Amino acid sequence: MQSFHKVVEADFDAVNRLIVAKLHSDVDLVENIGQYIVDAGGKRLRPLLVLLAAKALGYQGQQHIELAAIIEFIHTATLLHDDVVDVSALRRGRPSANAQWGNAPSVLVGDFLYSRAFQMMVGVGNIDVMAIMSDTTNVISEGEVQQLVNAKDPDVTEQNYMAVIHKKTAALFEAACETGAVIAGVSSEQRASIKQIGYHLGVAFQLVDDALDYHGNTESLGKNVGDDLAEGKPTLPLIYTMAQGTPEEAALIRTAIQQGGVDKLQQIISIVRERGGLEYTMRCANRHADEALTLIDQLPTSPFQSALADLTRFSVSRSI
């Protein structure tokens, strides 16, 4: 167990119990698929952020447990939908739900998890939380659509790419932190500051994920290496490498993005490494992690503040 888990271990266990309880459905298939993907584990960084943010800001109640489960349900719903869109066969080291049950059940159970999350939000009864989460789910959807539009387009710019990862990944990290601040009842300035921590942490985390797609291994990633290239996703390692490489190297990568597939994966990995695409992506990730750490230093000193810093460092420690 990581250090940032330990300081909220009891709360984290309570979140996991609540997730299991709220997965209940009269329709067996709903419960089976929901349980399958939740049982696969994952890092659960987003619900952890809710717990740590609320506690770091002095929250003493119990609503952070429910908010953390809500965040995890929304994240899980996006995973179910993403795997259908991306035709992914692996998720968290196991066959994806769509590979196991098919696309239609995966999409519909994703919808169930979204709606269950909003049922739980009504139970929390905080209009600010409802506003944050409804806006966030809308932004995530926009990010997913934009990523779909960008697929197989080698002319996507770094600016466009960063806008997409903000929407599809960092937005939920922001929401996790901000909802924790809302229930803690802090000032608007503190709320904005901790939301920024979520933004920088989420961007850093996604940048590392995108770098690892050209360096990691299937076992540690929980998905197939080269999945991004297979789907024609122009992520930062490729965008940078096309700008820095020879015309021939850029043309090879452009063609691979346009066509999808991994026929040239090993050759492209070599080019990305030689042209500094991985190092550049990791520098960007570390810059965002440093921004988050600067803001975390401004929080009141506590074990929860320290755990937030540890979580931030962990997000970029999966080094290349």
The share of residues in extended strands comes to: under 5%
> Structural class from helices and strands?
mainly alpha
Individual helix count = 17
Compute the separation of the termini in Å. Answer: 22 Å
Kindly identify the CATH topology. Farnesyl Diphosphate Synthase
Give the full name of the CATH homologous superfamily. Farnesyl Diphosphate Synthase
Task: Give the tally of β-strands.
Answer: 2
CATH class label: Mainly Alpha
Family: Belongs to the FPP/GGPP synthase family.
EC number: 2.5.1.90
Protein name: Octaprenyl diphosphate synthase
Catalytic activity: 5 isopentenyl diphosphate + (2E,6E)-farnesyl diphosphate = all-trans-octaprenyl diphosphate + 5 diphosphate
Task: Supply database-style keywords.
single chain, 320 residues, mainly alpha, Farnesyl Diphosphate Synthase, two-stranded antiparallel sheet, magnesium, Octaprenyl diphosphate synthase, transferase
Short description:
It is built from 17 helices and two strands.
Report what the structure shows.
It is a single chain. The protein is mainly α and 320 residues long. It has one domain: Farnesyl Diphosphate Synthase. It has 17 helices and two strands. It starts with a helix and ends in a 5-residue tail after the last helix. The mean pLDDT is 90.
